[in-house]
């Protein structure tokens, strides 16, 4: 579901940091877009810190991006216990679990196979389900998808299937292959898949309401030859993070609404992708849904680039993913 970005160089961050040290309220900071309001104070100016914390999207700006087992419908009809096995994963998988799993691979440099196998064993996944036969679980090329596919395969193997994982690239290529039955199962995300299947960029059918979005997804999936298991509590959606140092300075805030209240002076500096300025789930949504205003906006790559900019005090608030390993404690 997410994009993976290259690491920002130390020199690049330093250059951004130097240009970000202009006068308060400057609309041109470190190559940012310059959009946003003019700061009249510095309550929410960038504050360096070692630990990032995502703020709760308490007004439901982001659609429901719960992880959901997705299957070729013909395969699922002939092998109904395959989705039952994957539902044992959904029954325990949380956002915090995904953060930890991603961190184990990306930060601790452990192998996907070892991390997934440990999770399957610790949670007794696949237990109580019986199946058989060969099955292939597809995985996109980013860490989280690889881990989820390996966990799915482990649960299936524990249930009696003979499961393997195949890296299948981006959605534009793998979804038609799944529909054709070239592989049979895939770990998807509710909101993103719903919007992709609906296909109209001018309409939004996925919302923060998981159950309503599932109704849309089920209907679209049936027409596309797809079946679904039970969604997990685990969510990988856009998230917006600050340093715990800034969090403490603002009285321990935990939500985007509290951030908007504390930062009404317009001193926030936002770090986002180049597309963030015009995206309804990014800067536009933050302004319209939460009433946030920004002194400036820095255009950076998603992942370590933005995370480092927040930690080093270049930006106050950074776009991230809710399962980013940077949130591991």
From TrEMBL:
Gene3D superfamilies documented for this protein: Periplasmic binding protein-like II
PROSITE patterns: PROKAR_LIPOPROTEIN
An MF annotation (GO) of this entry: transmembrane transporter activity
Species of the source: Goekera deserti
InterPro entries with a match to the protein in the record: ABC_Gly_betaine_transp_sub-bd (IPR007210)
UniProt entry keywords in alphabetical sequence: Signal
GO cellular component, one term: ATP-binding cassette (ABC) transporter complex
Protein name (database record): Glycine/betaine ABC transporter substrate-binding protein
Pfam families per record: OpuAC (PF04069)
Domain of life of the native organism: Bacteria
Record keyword Signal present: yes
Region (Disordered): 25-51
Residue intervals of the ABC-type glycine betaine transport system substrate-binding domain: 51-121, 134-328
